[in-house]
Amino acid sequence: DTEVTQTPKHLVMGMTNKKSLKCEQHMGHRAMYWYKQKAKKPPELMFVYSYEKLSINESVPSRFSPECPNSSLLNLHLHALQPEDSALYLCASSLLEGLAGGPGETQYFGPGTRLLVL
Amino acid sequence: GDSVTQMEGPVTLSEEAFLTINCTYTATGYPSLFWYVQYPGEGLQLLLKATKADDKGSNKGFEATYRKETTSFHLEKGSVQVSDSAVYFCALRPSGYSTLTFGKGTMLLVSP
Question: Which of A67, B25, B34, B89 lies 20 to 30 A from A42 at CA?
Fold first, then answer.
């Protein structure tokens, strides 16, 4: 089973709202990722967690706040977003991260949360 | 830095036609190479991968061969179906790193 689940599937929020995106995997993967994908573009990496610790932050604005409460869960807390933050937010996981990962280390993606900021 | 270049789309084909989507890359060392597919309104699904030179990845009738001499990983399928209509992303993962570098994606449209 290579399933990564994400909730909610769709989210509409105002610029003053606080909301959270949730991602879950039960494959025993120890690396988890958040990506942002705009229409007709490839995914852009936002954050990487390795063994529940933040490993990479690609200079993402502080209105996006990731959290990894355990090895199966990854959250993305959203606050004071802008309309340009509207996008598909994808979560992914892989067995290991960085040098610990062997050749062919594969990232498995969830279905995404489609976010609209009004 | 590392980069992936894919042919511009959309690629429009009739059902049962032969498909080639070109992908070339620039990277140091020996990256792993991947093709992901994204159906409308969905996330990315791994289609196939190859980890070293001359490896051939295959899945669901799709194939791609890791060609180090031409730094290419072209995707092919002998007979496409309407259900293959999607966006295809070529990606590389540098050796020792987990981050993926994606190409811009190629949209494939297959008509009956």
Answer: A67
